[in-house]
């Protein structure tokens, strides 16, 4: 459903991403692994329309979304769950969800909100609480819920386990699995390789701004260069 090929993205003179490629399929999880600064977040933000890419192709169901702004990408059915969750701390849980559903009519948003509450009952319990008072794991659920409000067919998730306690990581990963089982295509950036490999159908390794390896999770466990790549540039240099 999503095909990203040879993506290039810059910040002014800094050519941060120069050859990232990956694909995602309905109901499957593609996990993007790589060291700090490899260009994973930049790639996700560019695909989601938050940063204009220089070149490459981005196609969702055969139609290009290259260079479209985020609100148009969302309408095409692709939503980003950003790094660090970026929930609106002073707003309530329900108000955060409303922001995610702004492209839909009120009645449609109401219905989707009930679906989100059924998926994440904790959000229902906390609907009138200030989002900033939720735990890290609850805030991650809220970030998922806010993205689900646009009824995406594909979700780009940037390090959903970041900064969470181990038990909470399990809960978050179960939620990711449940979303894929509902047929949503998932692309998940993950620093926690063990957690990522457990869920992955496909693994993509990004090093120094480019995709250097793509395969199944089983192949990733077997291929030692993948481990080196995940450990960081220094380990790869020493390999
Ligand atoms: P992390 O896991 O640490 O978030 P990442 O793989 O997601 O790493 P990016 O955040 O995409 O990596 O960063 C890729 C490169 O782009 C890095 O060299 C980084 O320093 C640079 N970069 C990121 N954001 C900016 C920015 N706003 N301005 C200039 N350079 C940036």
The count of DSSP E runs of length 2 or more, i.e. the number of strands, is 10
Mean pLDDT: 91
Helical residue percent band: 40-55%
Report the top-level CATH class: Alpha Beta
Considering the protein shown, what is the CATH homologous superfamily? P-loop containing nucleotide triphosphate hydrolases
Radius of gyration: 17 Å
The run of helices and strands is EEEHEEHEHHHHEHEHEEHHH
What are the salient characteristics of this protein?
239 residues; alpha/beta; Rossmann fold; 6-stranded mixed beta sheet; 4-stranded antiparallel beta sheet; 26% strand; globular; disordered C terminus; binds adenosine-5'-triphosphate
Ordered list of secondary-structure elements with their pairings:
Elements: E1 2-11, E2 14-24, E3 29-33, H1 40-47, E4 55-60, E5 63-64, H2 70-76, E6 78-81, H3 93-100, H4 106-119, H5 121-125, H6 136-148, E7 154-158, H7 166-181, E8 185-189, H8 193-199, E9 202-207, E10 210-216, H9 217-222, H10 224-231, H11 233-237
Parallel strand pairs: 3-8, 3-9, 6-7, 7-8
Antiparallel strand pairs: 1-2, 1-4, 4-5, 9-10
The structure holds adenosine-5'-triphosphate.
Adenosine-5'-triphosphate (ATP) binds next to strand 2 and helix 1.
